[in-house]
Design the sequence.
């Protein structure tokens, strides 16, 4: 078993347990709580919380209950975005991970409100994470506010939301002047890379605060950029895998725009840059073990 | 000119200016920023931010730039809720304050995303408010986190969101067992009173922190309850005013359920309780001037 497989086997169930506990606690209405659970606990890979925990683990920081809870907030945001993206007025997807999407199962108005409640709940989760720090080090209030600011920035009008606006312009050949730079910087970056770079970014910030073993300021930037490169490569891989489906749906994805070979080159360049970030960090930080994050990069590409 | 009219004349333009500044700053996309501005800057009364500022003023706390910004975050949440409530899948309102609603003007998908961005942005506004505290007292980090927690609770799955779920059940006579208690506690309280009590609640918390003139713990509860009573009375008045329209739309509002006279009695009882809260506070807190908050109560009822 690889490090990553082992890591996933340990932490994915714990992430799911934390999500379930908080989802049930946040609503007194059992029926509504069940809708929220349906939207979130449907077999996702938990890539974003796992990345935060992986960064902590790479710096040998132990994942205390408050850190676990903090790391799961991004999954509330990711889940809300899937529920809203699936709506009839948006991508109109009736299926999500092999099951009826939230609006297909519970109706459109409930899906809008489930998404709203998940987005709102993400900030409640962050603001209440330290309640689980009875016998462990608390995350400082200053850091909690920084995390809330980062989450709202990466998710909001300059982040995921504008990414979805642009992604929809990219459906049905509505936009005639789609360029390589526009696709990468104005669609993929805000829609996908933003939340993934948030996950590695706060992993770095929390490692610095909790362990004080991460010293060089440039390391923070490398961790953010690792997530950004990984996020873009992840999205390009998704488009490579969905090439035929996007063709049917008239979506101008990168492989359609520049050809499959060029899209793979871009993906590989991004993965190479992400690996270089890990090299940079390893050269500076004595406490850093890069192996787990290297294996995240192995998830993408030909070897999968 | 009454105290309140004077207060509104001073602070409503400042609230609007703060909202506009932050709405434009939060989005690099001019077209999307314009949609957000359309949703928010359309002539609202700014009741909720004004209530927070009125509580501060009642305790003679000066409204510094960071406090003004903090007070406006609730208006982002209120505005998002109107945009989403108006959607075709929800109340399907094509008009809002005499202008086309956001989805009528910009399309349904844009309206969903404008709402999402406003909700997300509210938390960014709170997390960044102290950036405006260069030469004035900062709000403590602990207090900022408390405000974020309260805002997410009152807006989320146990607050406004579940209020809207219940309100929709109350359309078209879908629910056969509508009771007085259910309407007040499960519809009006979370849908309307929650955010209004949030506004008075944080007004009290901020007064306590910034001026240290507010000493008795029960005063905090009275301020919260003042907002709660006021919010319920405000909603009942709205239903009294919209009686004919609700009749047409088959909404079981309080006047339909118990009759107009009984609905007015409930409203008056709530206003009387709210006035009693102000009496309680005035008896305890030497620095408290109740006149402005009394005039908020005068906004509701026969005298309007």
Sequence:
């Amino acid at each position: 078993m690889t490090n990553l497989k082992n890591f996933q086997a340990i932490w994915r169930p714990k992430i799911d347990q934390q999500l379930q506990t908080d989802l049930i606690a946040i609503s007194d209405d059992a029926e509504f709580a069940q809708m929220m659970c349906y939207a979130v606990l449907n077999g996702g890979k938990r890539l974003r919380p796992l990345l935060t925990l992986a960064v902590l683990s790479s710096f040998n920081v132990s994942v205390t209950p408050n850190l676990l809870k903090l790391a799961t907030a991004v999954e509330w945001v990711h889940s809300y975005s899937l529920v809203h993206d699936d709506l009839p007025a948006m991508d109109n997807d009736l299926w999500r991970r092999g099951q009826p999407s939230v609006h297909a199962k519970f109706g459109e108005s409930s899906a809008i409100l489930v998404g709203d409640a998940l987005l709102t709940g993400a900030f409640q989760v962050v603001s209440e994470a330290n309640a689980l720090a009875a016998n462990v080090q608390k995350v400082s209030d200053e850091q909690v506010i920084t995390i809330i600011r980062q989450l709202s920035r990466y998710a909001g009008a300059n982040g995921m939301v504008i990414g979805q606006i642009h992604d929809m312009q990219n459906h049905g050949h509505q936009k005639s002047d789609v360029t390589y730079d526009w696709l990468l910087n104005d669609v993929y970056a805000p829609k996908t890379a933003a939340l993934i770079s948030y996950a590695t970014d706060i992993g770095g910030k929390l490692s610095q605060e909790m362990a004080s073993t991460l010293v060089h300021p440039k390391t923070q930037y490398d961790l953010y950029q690792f997530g950004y490169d990984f996020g873009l490569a992840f999205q390009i891989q998704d488009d490579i895998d969905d090439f035929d489906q996007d063709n049917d749906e008239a979506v101008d994805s990168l492989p359609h725009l520049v050809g499959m070979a060029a899209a793979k080159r871009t993906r590989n360049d991004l993965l190479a840059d992400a690996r270089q970030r890990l090299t940079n960090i390893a050269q500076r930080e004595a406490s850093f073990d890069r192996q787990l994050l290297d294996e995240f990069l192995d998830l993408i590409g030909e070897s999968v």
Notes: The mean pLDDT of chain A is 94. Residues 3-298 of chain A form a domain with the Farnesyl Diphosphate Synthase fold (CATH 1.10.600.10). The CA atoms of residues 154 and 195 of chain A lie 6 Å apart.
